[in-house]
Amino acid sequence: MTDLVRWAALAPFLALAGAVINGLFGRSLRGNAAGVVASLAVAAGFVLSALAFLGVREVGAVRVDLGDFLVAGDFTLGLGFHLDQLSVLMMLIITGVGLLIHVYSIGYMQGDDGFSRYFAKLNLFVAAMLVLVMADSYPLMFVGWEGVGVCSFLLISFWYEDLANANAGRKAFIVNRVGDVGFLLAMFLTFRAFGTLDVQAVNAAAPGFAYGAPVLTGIGLLFLVAAAGKSAQLPLHTWLPDAMAGPTPVSALIHAATMVTAGVYLIARTGGVFANAPDAAATVVWVAVLTALMAAIVAVGQTDIKKILAWSTISQVGFMVAAVGAGAYWAGIFHVLTHAFFKALLFLGAGSVIHALGGEQDVRKMGGLGRKMRTTGVTALIGTLAIAGVPFLSGYFSKDAILGALLSSGPLGGYGAEALFGLLMVTAGLTAFYMFRWYYLVFAGEPRSKAEFERAHESPAVMTVPLVILAVGSVVIGYLGLPAFLAPNWLQGWLAPVSAEVDLAHLSTSAEWLLLLGSVAVAAIGLGLGYWVYAVGGGALARRFAATPLANASRGAFGFDALYRVLFTGPGEAGAAGIAALDRDVVDRGVSGSAGLIPLLGRLLVRLQSGYVRAYAFAMLLGAAALVLLVALIGVFA
Questions:
Q1: What is the domain partition of the chain in residue ranges?
Q2: Helix, strand, or coil here: 482?
Q3: Helix/strand/coil percentages in the chain, nearest 5
Q4: Which terminus of the chain is more exposed, N or C, with fewer CB under 10 A?
Q5: pLDDT score at 633
Q6: How far is residue 248 CA from its own chain's centroid?
Q7: Quick one: pLDDT at residue 406?
Q8: Rounded CA gap, 367 and 118, in Å?
Q9: Which backbone phi and psi does 205 adopt, to 5 degrees?
Q10: CA distance to 305, 440, 453, 553, 576, per residue, from 363 (Å)
């Protein structure tokens, strides 16, 4: 069984091989061959991940040694993959959902000039994310961390001929570099405190420090900065909505299966530190909850079919980060799992609509598309109900687990756990509301643009089959984490060996039932309010709300981009303009001026070179006289 687990170490290399093949030879491949090669590489990784899952279930964690990276005196930093319950579960999510996105992309990107280039980058993205979740040390995790950052830049700006797309890619890259500084500083402080960068060794040694020790708090806060950048949490969230500039399947991969969950994984993997740093853990939860609420409010005011989902992702990741910050690592990873299915489904459903409408993304020009795109419409409805928290769908169970964790988390006892719980309940209601709005404006009601309705058509099977599979997963995957008082919680038991010990109180059975019923009520209120505003009221209330200050703040995303432009972008542009002016007015003109001086000197020298001997003798006489005069003057004044 151990050897079976070790074979999983090939998964990232298979994805990398697919990227190399398509990168070097993709343009010579015919038809959809580039997409098939990329999909097979990820499919092979999924098979190896499944085998590793079976092996870890039997033998536990396995380390695959990749050799020494750094040897300095008696210190040795080895590189390797640590395959345990958490990493193999993340591998299954990455390769499983990633495979469906690859297959879907074959239809979505059909005929694009960069078809093979797209799949090379997509494979490279998967390879980097696998390295991130399999790494046994922070330096190797950072390699994967930077890899997904580079790949996000390449894929967001895939259609780089459009300046807006290129700018979106640069924005994602730059904002993520801010978070990366936090990761680097956290590694430096970790090594200073623990003398190692091995993740398992750090988690094992963390309880040896005093509870709440400043060094643990510092490490935790620096890792929070890193997580905020990669998982788009306040205040480093502004890059993710602009990431919609890339192809829609890229959005699905970034939002559902890879990049934005990296910060959640980092905190869960570093649980030993956060479990013993209550101030850092509480800061994580507060940042996450405020992010979730803010993003949900912003989603209400958006009109782009993908940007609504983008802000939804920021909000949903806030739920995940809040859970791992509260010490309920299994609940956070549970929502990562369910979110991977229903958010990939929603993004790919949006991509199907965009594909059918020739690139149109404004929901105000849609409506009634469910009548012409039945498979896309039905699967999108399932995804909408799942994220809204409707009972018996996956999102209902994972959100309930997170809400319960906030109430039962011991470390949050003095940090306003009840207030955090209340804010997340409001956020859950807003989620149901804006997702009903999203679905109704796109698939239900009457068409608001006859031309767009007439051109709509269902997508080909290569795109709709992944939608159906994801829809089934959005229904059934939640039953892996049923509330423990109702049935055995398989997922919590599976992750127990790799979860840090955190004081989580057990709610009474009556409290559990009240929580379940409360979650149902919140989802019903949100959906019902959405139905009343858009279906019954015909949008009149929405138009009235659109004139309020809160609506303006929602549409403007609370002004973060404008603020950052004033604080950072504007001064940076002014400084660059000043340097450009210096280069133009001083350097260039100085060089140009000196270039004009050379011919002048040349013309003067030409006059001196007359060719007459008597002129040269006269010049020598003048020079000798000047030299004698100079010597005499020196003698007088010496």
A1: 1-135, 137-555, 561-637
A2: coil
A3: 80, 5, 15
A4: C
A5: 79
A6: 14
A7: 86
A8: 31
A9: -85, -20
A10: 6, 9, 12, 20, 39
Average pLDDT, the chain: 91
Backbone angles phi, psi at 82, to 5 degrees: -110, 110
How far apart are the C-alpha atoms of 85 and 89, rounded to whole Å?
Answer: 6
The span from the CA of 505 to the CA of 233, in Å, is 27
CB 301 within 8 A of CB 247: no
Continuous segment of H or E residues that includes residue 530 = helix 509-530
Q: What DSSP assignment string belongs to 119-144?
A: HHHHHHHHHHHHHHHHBSBHHHHHHH
> Cβ(387)–Cβ(342) under 8 Å?
yes
More confident residue, 551 or 44: 44
State whether residue 435 is helix, strand or coil: helix
**Other CB atoms closer than 10 Å to residue 223's CB: what's the count?**
29
* CA–CA separation, 181 and 145 (whole Å): 12
Tokens at 296, concatenated: 């949900």
Q: Which two tokens stand for residue 436?
A: 């009903």
Give 524's DSSP letter.
H
Q: How confident is the model at residue 586 (pLDDT cuts 50, 70, 90)?
A: confident
Average pLDDT over residues 445-470: 93
CA-CA-CA-CA torsion sign (621, 624, 630, 634):
negative
- Is residue 525 within 8 Å of residue 517, measured between CB atoms? no
Phi, psi angles (nearest 5°) of residue 417 = -60, -40
- pLDDT given for residue 638 in this prediction: 62
Residue partners of 503: CB distance under 8 A and separation at least 6: 327, 409, 410, 411
Q: Check pLDDT > 70 for residue 413.
A: no
Q: Show Cβ contacts of residue 162 under 8 Å, excluding neighbours closer than 6 positions.
A: 245
Structure tokens at 250: 């890229």
Query: Over the stretch 484-526, which tens digit does the pLDDT of each residue have?
Result: 888 889 999 999 998 865 656 677 888 889 999 999 999 999 9
pTM confidence score: 0.91
